[in-house]
Prior knowledge:
The structure holds two protein chains of two kinds. By secondary structure, chain A is α/β, with parallel strands linked by helices. Chain A has twelve helices and eight strands. Chain A has helices spanning about 20-30, 50, 65-70, 100-110, 115-125, 140-150, 165-175, 195-205, 215-220, 230, 235-250, 260-270; strands at about 5-10, 35-40, 80, 90-95, 130-135, 150-160, 180-190, 210-215. An eight-stranded mixed β-sheet of chain A has the order 3-4-2-5-1-6-7-8, sandwiched between helices. In chain A, strand 6, helix 7 and strand 7 form a beta-alpha-beta unit. Chain A is globular and about 50 Å long. Chain A starts with 5 loop residues before the first strand and ends in a 17-residue tail after the last helix. Chain B starts with a strand and ends with a helix. By secondary structure, chain B is α/β, with parallel strands linked by helices. Chains A and B meet through helix 5 and helix 6 of A and helix 7 and helix 8 of B.
Amino acid sequence: MSGTPRIITVHSYRGGTGKSTTVANAALLATAAGRRVAIVDTDIQTPGLHRFFGLGRFAACRSLADYLVGKCEIIEAVGSMPADESGGSLWVVPARSRINEINEILTHGYDIGLLQEGFDQLIEELDLDVVFLDTHSGMANETAVAVAVSTLLLVITRADHLTSEARENFVLATRLGDSATSVVVNMVPEGITADLVCQRAEQVYQSPVIATLPYCPEVAALGTDGLFARHHPEHEIVAAYRAMTATILADLPGPARPGPARSANRSARRGSADRGLAHGGLRRLGRA
Amino acid sequence: MGYQVGIIESVSGETPPQLVAAFDELQSSVQIFNVDALQRSERAPQVDVIAVSAQVPPRELNDILIRFSGDGVVPVVLVFTEKRFDCLEQHIRFGRDYLVPPFLPSLLGVRMRTCYERARFGRTVTQTEDSARLIAADRDMEIAREIQVGFLPVELPQPAGWQLTSSFQPARKVSGDFYDAFTVANGRRVAFVVADVCDKGIGAALFMALIRSLLRHTAEFSGLQSLAAEQIIASTQDSGKPVVPVVGVTPMMNAIRSTNEYLTRNHAAQAYFATLFFGVLDPVTGRVAYINCGHNPPMLLRSDGLSQSTLEHTGPAVGVVPDCVFDLGHTRLAPGDTLLVYTDGVTEARSPTGEFFGEERLLRAARLPGISGKTISDNVERRLYAHIGDAAQFDDITMMTIHRLPAFATAGE
């Protein structure tokens, strides 16, 4: 791993901001830049991220919800994406695999400490550079923890969502963490000046706007059936996604080259005594 | 026959001479009392038989008889009259026995013997009833003891690389102390509790059952609902940095808070409370998050057998203050370390000369380098009971050890 892993929590006050689309593409582009990336869908209530990665077809696969209610280890919920020539790697943790899991989560609850412990284990086990945490819109327990553990809070909004309510929600979110905050204004309609939107967004969020992304009918047309950056790598919006991703990762040390040094580093980390993940990552207690 | 007889007159000199003569004939010693004099006195001499004039009203008689009831035994009472049979009737309605002329020694002797035997039989029945009640109470206590044992864990979790032991000796049949250990967070953590309900005996035992059940049920089944945002914001206000509760803290905190709220809101009148130590162990890292609710600070004994520290209070006893704040404590057990959690029955156990066992003796007994928790527990127990000797055990004695096996032992498993 290159330095301290960056945990980027992506949040929006309202749904329909293109949050999951943006973060899924950003994760793919971070991978293409040679990073070791995991993306975790913490939106247990209305999951959707898995579809971008074609995980929807595998109903039997494990999920974050399975881990939280004790059915598996977090590492068993990881779906691995095919490696590309960049040397980067991408892993995806879906929020839940079956609809009835939401009942279990809502009825019995789960220990919220498991979220952070799970993220830590992913970082450790997969030797990650970057973790993207997609969240439920508004506020939920998972969102609160995701914001609290983040090193960067990335707010995704639409130009027509820049309201006082959005501001209040944002203030609450910032009280949950002490991370840096950046704003992305998405789906900016044609004819609206980016500078004007930027100005308004920075007023509402009192944070820098790192990207204004135009509304793109092709992205909408693809929907959740795939990653737009994979299908149309040369598209104008993908260039904007790429620039946004580069800004997010700007001050991370450059990606380590894959090879023996990297492997040695990973082995050493896995051997570190304290996490006790030597038993295939299983943390549940065995009996003496 | 030799009875001690007391004669109570309503008017001096009213006792028929034949009656006194008959008592004399039966070799009984007779004392004559005036009813008014008796009412002014607090106590009367002990006698076997009271012969009372029928002219003493029955209600007054009842008050007076209390003065004769030495050792709780009321003498045999006979109401006599020579002519006032109208007065006798009301005594008979009260169930008194009677003497009427002729006062012949032979008749009087038979009458007294019959009455005396009947009274003795009555007393025997009462005593039998009393002892039957005692036996029933004893049986109830035995049942309570057996049920209470069911409120203690059958076995303690033994995660790989760890050894948990317990020791429990009630001062009476039932106890206000308890200990518990069970897994939480889908089996990823071991929760352990040592508690001391105030008072001893059945009252404390009832509250032990309640508190243990509330704590465990909440921690295991209903203590996971939490408002993460509220907790995280509170931590930011306290420490300036967001702190996400670590695994096991939420069920522990919810268990303590809700038990405290339940007790203070529903049982304030009984004024029972418990000091307790609740810890959550991560067997992988050795980290322990804990809440010490006014309990004796447990001893963390390091593997070298020389250094130790104590885990001080982080909140008040449970069941005293509503809506109070319980803080978290954190520590870590390295390989070879032992955490000794105990109740004050250990340190306040007295020798036959009244000397407390005390923390110094406890520490000396517990501070053994590089050995198992069971050895420490056994050594403390041996020295403790040697100290108590044949003195009475005043308080419940409970201990729990959480021992992290030395690294070489873990590696060998």
